[in-house]
Write a structure and sequence with these properties.
A: MetI-like fold, 2 domains, 75% helix, B: alpha+beta, Rossmann fold, six-stranded mixed sheet, five-stranded antiparallel sheet, 8 helices
Chain lengths: 558, 361
């Protein structure tokens, strides 16, 4: 592409992406200084004063800090442990690790949280009921509706992402670094703690920080587990200000949201610096390198059993509990009697419920249309980021990364301030725009790596062979991009099907979506209906992920 | 087809600095010969190649291929690469991974709208030529490095281009395969009688392949000549040093004697290949290690006879590499692998004036 045209395209994309990402932030800032949704633009500091003198805020802040650090420590430690076992030892059935790392795609966070509530809630959690029967206890021994429950569930949910950051770093680790430590007289354990983990420190820290960002933005766990247990964190604090009670206060929510957003953006900046650092740290030059495998010996089977239990807890249990609950008239421990009482009542109720059906339709529409528009935008943005290396392209790169750090509920408040001024308010298009803006980085990433793979020589070679730029686009570039386009589409579609945090703010009567409807069921304690609808949601996202894997393997030759 | 390059310059801007990639290059590349652009990395050789093929635009000057001007700033002519009718082999081969060998090689014909039968026939011919007959149906990714290289060559040749260009095509192969492929390539190109422009930083490759070598440095062409001329008879110190291992000494010209130019240098008074340097002027004496034939023991003083002492000996398989001391100077030389010689031994050698090369200081 010639330079003036590329520059024009770059600035057009900066305008679009800027409008999608910077705009809601701007609205959030303006909103936090405004009187209210109806009195936009009247400058006041009242909302800040109000928000930050709230006596409840101190407890919320403390809870948030404990929650995000606890969850992130748990997910990082688990990820380091699993990554080490998979990349460096002779543990059997390594395919399990690959499965463990794609779970978050298949099981929506909301349903994962619900399934733990179904298992461990103090009044009729299945596991609690079972334990009471076995040990003849009066009280439920475990209560998921607590800080430790939140940390456990959030930690498990964030583990796969931490794993995806740490495992590649470990796999590309130059074993000579370890071997020279052993030769110098250090034991295997000493080498692990003195050499291996310190060298991997940037990757581990990056995983830890990303865990903090994600749990700060998490809404599913705080709402399903934290709210019944009266453990408010910032996300639920915000939600209560705008969605419950009679006195919704968007200005106050925006004022609190500003500090969440600031924290999140700062952490993402640190995260980006760390990942750049970790690439420098463990990159191995040249070929002829192979990892040595550490023999676990007697520890092999016990460690494998541990991984097996973890896989069970992460994959099988949530789905099984939901499926079981969807067929039960009320909560009871699985038994012959329980199975004989199985009923399709909840399924009939849900499929006959006009709001649930509307939510399903809306979610499918958002997934298909949103993912398509998102991918089209991502193709152009990725092209400019990878192939047009001007300063403006660098701005676009940073801009498109920005929404990665947006906590959905906070940015939702920003969008709210905007949409209420426009006819888009309470239409499905508001959700569509919000989804694309918030999830754009997830579309851009697979597209950029697809573009990176297309070495400029492949394009140039076609020109030298006599093909026009258009023919080159048709016969060389697009065919090579298809795998990236397909996987980007499916990733976005599966995220849109289960979107919760942005939707709880933007969804209005008539624009319900699946996740919001499930949250309503959860708030009303309608576990049976919830499970039935949840299984439908899991079926859709699983189908999309399976499709993605299949398409991915078909195009693997490239 | 002859390529004429007139006054071509090209600048890059990087981090606020201007880098001269090409500095007013004027050059004629003869038809039906293998012409090599040789130089250290960053000397502008690849930029020049990409300007010829049309993937980059020079800032000034004119380039013509045969009778057609393909680029001219003054005449505002800029023919895009796909209209120049050339063939090129890229450093990465640029084999399209989503196509079979047949589609890769047939592509230049397909995009020109050649009929199917003709495409099939000519692809078969091209593959046969590069000794890959029968590979048509293979996916391009199922080829070894050497095979990919030959597919790239077949693709560059299949449309019978006016000129074929090579951008370091052997640098991704391992040492042994590189040597074999180099020989094959030479044979292919000799058979084809086509104008070939070849870019490399490897001097052995350049010497073995080329009819003519142009040595480049910092965006300029320093010297052009046949491989023998460049190796034995370079005019420039940079070229003499770059093209092979060389012992270089400062020398002062005494004058001419018996068809030789005689100089004073740290080795003594040496008669060299005749050069037009003024008496009393400074020059550089260049001695290649392979022409220093060592004899054991001290020799009586005489014309072009030098006495030395072995300083180090390194066994490298086919022979010893040795450093010998003459006064203050250390020289690199070679000794036969089976010679009975030891560190500290006195040696002598006599220099043939034809192998004593004088270049400008």
């Amino acid at each position: 592409m010639n330079q003036p045209r590329a520059a024009k395209l770059t600035w057009l994309l900066i305008a679009i992406v800027g409008a999608l990402t910077v705009f809601p932030v701007l609205m959030l800032v303006l909103g936090s200084f405004s009187e209210g949704l109806t009195a936009f633009g009247v400058f006041t500091l009242d909302k800040y004063v109000d928000a930050y003198t709230d006596p409840a805020l101190a407890e919320v802040m403390l809870n948030t800090v404990i929650f995000v650090i606890g969850a992130s420590v748990l997910s990082t430690v688990l990820a380091v442990f699993l990554a080490y076992l998979n990349t460096r030892t002779d543990i059997p059935f390594k395919f399990l690790f690959g499965i463990l790392s794609v779970i978050p795609m298949m099981i929506p966070h909301l349903l994962f949280s619900v399934s733990w509530a179904l298992l461990l809630n103090p009044s009729n959690g299945l596991l609690n009921l079972g334990l009471k029967e076995v040990f003849g206890l009066e009280e439920a021994p475990l209560d998921i509706y607590s800080m430790w429950g939140m940390i456990l569930v959030e930690g498990l949910l964030d583990m796969p992402i931490a794993y995806l950051i740490i495992a590649p770093a470990m796999a590309s680790f130059d074993v000579a670094l370890e071997e020279s430590s052993r030769v110098s007289g250090a034991s295997a354990w000493k080498t692990l703690f003195r050499i291996t983990l310190p060298v991997l420190r940037p990757a581990i820290l990056a995983a830890f920080i990303l865990g903090i960002v994600r749990s700060l933005a998490s809404f599913a766990v705080p709402s399903v587990i934290g709210m019944p247990g009266r453990v408010p964190v910032l996300a639920t604090h915000l939600y209560e200000m705008i969605a419950t009670g009679f006195a919704t206060d968007y200005g106050k929510a925006a004022a609190v949201g500003m500090s969440v957003l600031a924290a999140s953006v700062t952490l993402i900046v640190v995260y980006r610096a760390l990942t750049a650092e970790s690439e420098k740290f463990v990159t191995i030059a040249g070929r002829g390198f192979k990892t040595t495998v550490i023999e676990l010996g007697a520890a092999r089977m016990p460690l494998f059993a541990l991984v097996g239990v973890l896989s069970f807890v992460l994959i099988v249990l949530p789905v099984a509990v939901l499926a079981y609950t969807s067929f039960m008239p009320y909560s009871m421990v699985p038994s012959a009697r329980a199975f004989s009482m199985m009923t399709l009542k909840h399924w009939r109720d849900v499929l006959g419920d006009p709001i649930s059906i509307l939510a399903l339709k809306n979610s499918l529409f958002l997934a298909v249309v949103g993912a398509t528009l998102g991918v089209v935008l991502s193709v152009f943005v990725a092209y400019v980021i990878v192939k047009v290396k001007t300063r403006a392209a660098g701005i676009l790169d940073s801009l498109s990364y920005l929404s990665f750090s947006f906590p959905g509920i906070v940015i939702g408040v920003g969008f709210m301030w905007f949409f209420v001024q426009t006819p888009l308010y309470s239409t499905i298009w508001a959700l569509l725009l919000g989804y694309i803006a918030t999830y754009l980085p997830y579309g851009i990433r697979p597209m950029s790596s697809a573009f990176v793979q297309i070495h400029s020589h492949l394009e140039e070679s076609s020109l030298v062979c006599g093909a026009s730029p258009l023919t080159t686009l048709k016969r060389i570039i697009v065919p090579l991009l298809i795998p990236g386009i397909v996987s980007g589409w499916i990733l976005l579609a599966s995220m849109f099907v289960r979107e919760l945090t942005l939707s709880v703010v933007l969804s209005r009567p008539g624009t319900e979506v699946l996740a919001v409807q499930i949250l309503r069921f959860s708030e009303d304690g309608l576990w049976g209906k919830l499970s039935a609808l949840g299984i439908v949601m899991i079926a859709i996202t699983t189908a999309l992920v399976v499709l993605a894997t299949w398409v991915g393997s078909r195009f693997k030759t490239a | 087809m002859e390529i004429r390059i007139r006054g071509v310059s090209k600048h890059y801007f990087s981090e606020g600095k201007t880098i001269k990639a090409l500095d007013d290059v004027t050059l004629t590349i003869p038809a039906r010969k293998i012409f090599t652009l040789l130089g250290p990395s960053g000397c502008g050789k690849t930029t020049l190649l990409r300007c010829i093929v049309g993937l980059e635009m020079p800032d000034t000057g004119e380039i013509s291929i045969g009778d057609d001007v393909v680029w001219s700033r003054d005449k505002a002519i800029s023919v895009p690469p796909e209209k120049r009718g050339l063939g090129m082999v890229f450093q990465t081969y640029a084999i399209w991974p989503h196509m079979t060998v047949f589609d890769n090689v047939g592509y230049p014909l397909q995009v020109r709208g050649a009929p199917r039968d003709e495409v099939r026939e000519r692809v078969a011919k091209a593959l046969d030529f590069v000794q890959l007959a029968g590979f048509e149906g293979r996916p391009a990714t199922k080829l070894s490095g050497g095979q990919q290289q030959r597919v790239a060559l077949a693709r560059a040749l299949v449309a019978e281009p006016r000129v074929i260009l090579f951008d370091e095509p052997l640098s991704n192969l391992d040492a042994k395969l590189r040597e074999e492929t180099r020989k094959e390539l030479r044979a292919f190109l000799e058979k084809l009688q086509i104008t070939a422009v070849y870019v490399t930083h490897d001097r052995v490759e350049a010497l073995a392949l080329s009819d003519t070598i142009a040595v480049m440095r910092a965006g300029s062409i320093i010297e052009i000549g046949t491989p023998r001329k460049i190796y034995f008879d370079a005019d420039h110190r940079f070229v003499a040093d770059f093209i092979g291992r060389a012992n270089l000494f400062k020398a002062r010209v005494r004058g001419e004697q018996g068809g030789h130019t005689v100089v004073d240098c740290p080795l003594g008074t040496i008669a060299c290949q005749r050069r037009d340097f003024p008496a009393g002027g400074e020059a550089t004496l260049c001695l290649r290690p392979e022409f220093i034939h060592l004899v054991r023991g001290e020799a009586p003083a005489g014309h072009n006879i030098v006495n030395a002492r072995i300083e180090t000996l390194t066994f490298v398989g086919e022979n010893y590499e040795t450093e010998i001391r003459v006064g203050e100077e250390l020289l690199l030389a070679r000794v036969d692998a089976d010679a009975s010689i030891a560190v500290g031994d006195a040696v002598s050698f006599s220099l043939d004036p034809a192998h004593c090369l004088l270049v400008a200081a």
